[in-house]
# Entry
Amino acid sequence: YPTWKRTLARRARESQMKRFCRAQAIQRRLEEIEVTFRELEQQGIKLEKLLRDENESPADQQTQWTNQLLYLVQKKNNLMTEESDLMIAVQELKLEEQQCQLDEKLRSYMNKEDTLKTPEDEKAEQEILKQLVEVVNKRNILIQLQEEKRLSEL
# Structure
């Protein structure tokens, strides 16, 4: 087994582990966001009830509750934006994994001697190459989407 093949296999395993760790971190953060959403929702409900039920309370108290409610809405919007970014990252990870698998398949066909390739092998190689281009284009679209989103936030 040549050294370069071992190196490629090791690098593929390392990148797979990095993607796996990143996916786990994203999943944990999405779960944290979900819990925070629920907490913010409960706080918002309490504040809304206070604002509706306490018409006799001082105006500055109502202003304070309104400000707290607006702060909760802003916090929820920020979390929704973060959640959206994380979902894009999940899609990107899936496409990255798919690209690595296609790369590996394509490499196995390309490493085969041309004289030993059957017409089916050549057809499969072309199909994999086509799929690889589609995955790269999808990743490019995701990157453009992130960039547009970032620019619109500025």
Notes: Residues 59-110 form the longest helix (52 residues).
